[in-house]
């Protein structure tokens, strides 16, 4: 065995040990709590456990970093599909309505994942404190902005930072001082990693990407209000044509389509969680025509609202 082969073997063993530790820590902290999302005392950090594959589940994803310890999940945005597993992490840098599905999980080897919510303001402060660009612009799309979603390889430095944060959960007395430092290191490693420039661009003040991110935030806050694209463009200091073009590059949708997706996702949540009937949910999110609502709902989710609600309410929970 030569020196290079020996070094690679040691690195591989170290990687396997780190992943095994992450699996053990998430499994232990979620054991007994059932399937689902588990909050932690570190506010941005959540742990996810699922004991089997799931159906496709539409949801609005807020900015987040997801690191899978065990199992595999697929998310779809329009016609683009992303896989993330123990080899890949997922970054959602702007609010996006997507469809997710856990495709690999069993009771003996459940899907285990940690999610860290991203505060763009914190990312911006980190970039300022670093005092220099944190990643190259290689790979940037020709129009100057990138999709607000990407998957990248988990490397050793990122895994080490994630494990340091997870270990802090065993010593609560250290959390007030050390948890913010651990979170900053994790985001620093993401910014320095493959495609990290995408997250950086959305946090840099007055970049084209950050203006689109502001437009996304405005639509997220006011999705029930009538949309005037000219007013939105003025608010984020872009021309109407530029906003439309750049917005689609970041989200895969026009601003009007994005607003429609937000409304349909909210209507679905009202029906599934709130028990509201389809006509009432449609009216609540701004649809005057129940038939138009039903058509657009079926086009997005694959089934008309009434039949999907009946199916969901009749299915076993958990």
TrEMBL record:
InterPro entries: Homeodomain-like_sf, HTH_AraC, Tscrpt_reg_HTH_AraC_N
Pfam families referenced in this protein's UniProt entry, alphabetically: AraC_N, HTH_18
Keywords (A to Z) from UniProt: Transcription, Transcription regulation
Residue spans crossing the bilayer: none
Domain HTH araC/xylS-type: 213-311
Species lineage: Bacteria, Pseudomonadati, Pseudomonadota, Gammaproteobacteria, Lysobacterales
Protein's name according to its UniProt entry: AraC family transcriptional regulator
Keyword Transcription regulation carried by entry: yes
Gene3D superfamilies in alphabetical order: Homeodomain-like
Record bears the keyword Transcription: yes
């Amino acid at each position: 065995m030569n020196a290079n082969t020996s070094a690679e073997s040691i690195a591989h063993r170290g990687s396997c040990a780190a992943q095994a530790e992450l699996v053990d820590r998430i499994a232990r902290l979620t054991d007994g709590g059932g399937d689902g999302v588990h909050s932690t005392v570190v506010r941005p950090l959540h742990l996810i456990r699922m004991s089997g594959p799931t159906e496709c589940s539409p949801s609005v994803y807020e900015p987040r970093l997801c690191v899978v310890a065990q199992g595999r999940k697929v998310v779809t945005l329009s016609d683009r599909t992303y896989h993330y597993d123990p080899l890949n992490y997922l970054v959602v840098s702007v609010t996006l309505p997507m469809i997710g599905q856990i495709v690999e999980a069993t009771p003996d080897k459940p899907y285990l994942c940690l999610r860290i919510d991203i505060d763009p303001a914190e990312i911006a402060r980190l970039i300022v404190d670093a005092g220099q660009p944190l990643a190259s612009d290689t790979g940037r799309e020709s129009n100057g902005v990138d999709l607000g979603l990407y998957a990248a390889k988990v490397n050793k430095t990122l895994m080490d930072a994630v494990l340091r944060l997870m270990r802090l959960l065993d010593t609560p007395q250290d959390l007030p001082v050390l948890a913010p430092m651990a979170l900053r290191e994790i985001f620093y490693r993401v910014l320095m990693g493959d495609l990290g420039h995408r997250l950086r661009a959305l946090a840099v003040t007055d970049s084209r990407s950050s203006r689109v991110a502001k437009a996304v935030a405005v639509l997220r806050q006011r999705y029930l209000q009538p949309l005037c694209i000219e007013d939105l463009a003025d608010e984020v200091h872009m021309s109407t044509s530029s906003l439309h073009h750049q917005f689609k590059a970041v989200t895969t949708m026009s601003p009007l389509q994005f607003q429609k997706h937000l409304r349909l996702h909210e209507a679905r949540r009202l029906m599934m969680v709130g028990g509201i009937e389809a006509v009432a949910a449609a009216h609540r999110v701004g649809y005057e025509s129940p038939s138009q609502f039903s058509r657009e709902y079926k086009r997005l989710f694959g089934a008309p609202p009434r039949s999907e609600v009946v199916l969901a309410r009749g299915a076993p929970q958990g």
